[in-house]
Write a structure and sequence with these properties.
Structural class: alpha+beta
Radius of gyration: 27 Å
Oligomer: single chain
Number of helices: 11
């Protein structure tokens, strides 16, 4: 294991780490109206024990609604604290047996891209340690030590994983106990032939420190992962036969809720086929539980929610072209499809096995693909109903205990929230609280246009200053991330101006092709062509908006970090007619520089997709560059290496092209407050010269 390096990270290319950039249905539900708690919203929803009424608060008053007579009764002022009411209004969701079995107590906290170095057995008697490249067991009561492996070294090591597994597969565990504490499963990693990348730390000190990391680049030698199991009673190590002839990844090792099946996910190097395997810890043999395959790339972490019998599970599948749910079991049997439709299902809200019912969210509105809706469906797959029948964006759900009524907040980007009561059949029963659409803050406008290939409607949001004046002409900031599976916008009401607006800019956000919640065709539209269709959509959005008299098309800036930094660079290089200034922070500039797991998932290898890598390289377009470019990068960025910036700078110098740059000696993947200050100084200088 290399010397741990704690990155100062703001954004990551790895979408598996739960980035704030990734706007899932769950995040939209939690955020609701973006913190807006004014007219039209309700708190402290409580349901009568007799199932005949509900109580709620809005605008400081308490009400009771009678479900039979459909009459509202005033209960006077609500004296409860506002924060208490807000939490109580989130609703209740059945938990079922969604969790997995106990693989031990993990001690400490691994740094980014690393794994825990100690896990204690479920019975508390043993501690498994990763130490000096090997696995060591220590009896916590007697002090007895058992050296499970002895031949570990810098190239071959046990009880840990490669950095790229931690970063891109979110694999922060490398040792797992069985729930009876009798066996320990652990990784064996072979980095032989993997080229190390050499960083230097301590740039602001008297002497620097050499920091190498095994970091596989696209098309190059990958680390090889294997699994082994140690039987404490037999004092024997057995290899797990999870390998295949082609290169593969082994990850997401977990124990079934009943503790009877230890599972592992296996995918091929290009991540087009995912298999969930059950491991026989006595023989080391594996059997197939479920497999999923896509022509582009398959989700690496599909949901797997177990039912009460701890054998059947609700599986998240994309095989229809949209994310939906089906019922399977650990024997490998597919029972039936549960949800269906030409829309993207979101999160499971509850599973009620007694009633044979499931609630889930989904982006099923024909009016707008980003309007979140609530659905009910039988666990046998029958009677699927969209409960939130209004064509608005819904959130803050609260379902009655008898599953017959739903309270839901609805809104649009420029329509303040209202709250409705629906019946389970989808009938709008009553508006519990309403806001006046004329009271909208007018800070944001959702717009759409057709993609350049005429396959999709692209949606974006234009954000305006609070003192917006249509008779003026404003500079524009296109702030973006744009990586595969991410989401830039939500359809929730915008009640506060963005930071760009407060500085006198219009701001534009776009859900480009390749972003999430639109199905596999939309998600896969950038497959093998990153930096092409995705940035095209942002540029086309600006081309559309600059037709408006208050949008100054000559003063448009683009900015992002990590994948967003890559998009910012590609924007000004590929669309010089659109962007006048660009700030590329912590940016990939050529996908040959990034790691295998992320890059090959979306781009295949340079050997198989040379054209895609060339088209997706910022250096390809240097000769035609015009405009203003600021390059910002951390000198100890172990995620997107600073060589990305250096290669672009070298190409710009050779072509005689002007640019500005700033490097941060002690920053990892992110440029922090210093980068933010430099960004605004740069934009204000070139896009708002009258303010200087």
């Amino acid at each position: 294991m290399r010397i741990p390096l704690k990155s100062v990270g703001l954004l990551s290319l790895s979408l598996s780490l739960g980035l704030a950039i990734v706007d899932t249905a769950d995040a939209q539900r939690r955020r609701g109206g973006g913190g807006y708690r004014g007219p039209g919203t309700v708190t402290r929803v409580t349901w009568g024990e007799d199932g005949k009424s509900l109580e709620y608060s809005t605008e400081g008053n308490r009400y009771r609604f009678h479900l039979d007579s459909r009459e509202k009764e005033s209960l006077g002022k609500d004296e409860s604290p506002a924060d208490q009411g807000r939490a109580a209004g989130r609703g209740r969701r059945g938990r079922g047996s969604a969790g997995f079995g106990n693989t031990g107590t993990y001690v400490g906290r691994p740094t980014r891209g690393r794994q825990y170095t100690q896990v204690d057995s479920p019975d508390g008697n043993w501690a498994a340690h990763y130490q000096d490249w090997n696995v060591l067991l220590e009896n916590k009561k007697t002090g007895q030590k058992v050296q499970v492996t002895k031949d570990g070294n810098e190239s071959i090591h046990y009880g840990t994983a490669s950095w790229v597994y931690g970063e891109e597969l979110n694999q922060n565990r490398a040792m797992w106990w069985t729930d009876d504490s009798k066996k320990l499963v652990f990784y064996r990693f072979d980095d032989t032939g993997v080229e190390p990348f050499h960083l230097v730390t301590g740039w602001s000190k008297i002497n620097t420190t050499h920091y190498p990391e095994y970091y596989p680049k696209p098309g190059a030698k990958n680390p090889t992962a294997a699994l082994m199991v140690y039987d404490l009673a037999a004092e024997k190590v057995t290899p797990i036969n999870a390998a295949v002839e082609t290169e593969h990844y082994l990850f997401d090792i977990r124990l079934s809720p009943a503790g009877d099946v230890m599972m592992v996910s296996r995918t091929d190097r290009l991540q087009q086929k995912l298999e969930i395997l059950g491991m026989d810890l006595e023989t080391g043999e594996c059997r197939l539980i479920v497999a999923e395959e896509q022509d582009t790339y398959q989700a690496n972490h599909p949901g797997m929610r177990f039912l009460d019998d701890k054998q059947r599970f609700i599986w998240t599948t994309d095989k229809s072209g949209f994310t939906h749910y089906e019922l399977r079991d650990l024997s490998g049997k597919l029972h039936h499809q549960i949800t269906s439709g030409d829309f993207q299902a979101g999160r499971i809200e509850f599973v009620d096995e007694e009633r044979g019912l499931m609630g889930f969210t989904g982006f099923s509105s024909p009016k707008n693909p980003y309007y979140n809706q609530y659905h009910l469906v039988g666990l046998q797959g029958e009677g699927q109903t969209r409960v939130t029948s209004l064509d608005y964006h819904h959130s803050n759900f609260n379902l009655s205990p008898d599953r017959k009524w739903l309270v839901a907040q609805y809104e649009e980007v420029n329509r303040p929230p209202s709250t409705a009561l629906y019946s389970a059949s989808g009938e709008l029963v009553v508006h519990l609280a309403e806001s006046d659409p004329a009271s909208a803050a007018n800070l944001a406008e959702m717009f759409s246009f057709r993609s350049s290939d005429d396959r999709f409607d692209i949606y974006g949001i234009l954000y305006k200053p609070a003192d917006f004046d249509a008779s003026k002409s404003y500079p524009v900031i296109n702030a973006l991330y744009g990586g595969p599976g991410s989401n830039e916008i939500s359809a929730a009401y915008v009640s506060r101006p963005r930071a760009e607006n407060q500085r006198g800019y219009l701001a534009v956000k776009v859900n480009n092709r390749g972003s999430g919640n639109r199905g596999k065709a939309f998600l896969g539209a950038t497959y093998l062509r990153l930096g092409d269709a995705d940035i095209q959509d942002h540029a086309d959005a600006i081309r559309l908006l600059r037709e408006r008299p208050y949008v100054d098309g000559d003063r448009v800036g683009i900015v992002g970090s990590s994948y967003g930094g890559y998009m910012a660079a590609m924007g000004i290089f590929k669309h010089p007619d659109v962007y006048a200034a660009s700030v590329a922070k912590s940016a990939v500039t050529d996908w040959r520089n990034y790691d295998t797991i992320y890059t090959e998932r979306y781009m295949s290898t340079p050997q198989l997709n040379k054209k895609g890598y060339d088209v997706g390289s910022a250096m390809t377009y240097v000769d035609g560059f015009k405009g203003k470019l600021l390059i910002l990068h951390g000198m100890i960025d172990d995620n997107v290496h600073p060589t990305n910036a250096f290669q672009l700078i070298e190409a710009m110098d050779k072509a005689g092209k002007p640019y500005e740059s700033r490097f941060f000696p002690n920053n990892g993947h992110g440029t922090g407050a210093g980068g933010n200050k430099s960004q605004w100084e740069f934009f204000d200088r070139y896009l708002k010269p009258e303010s200087n």
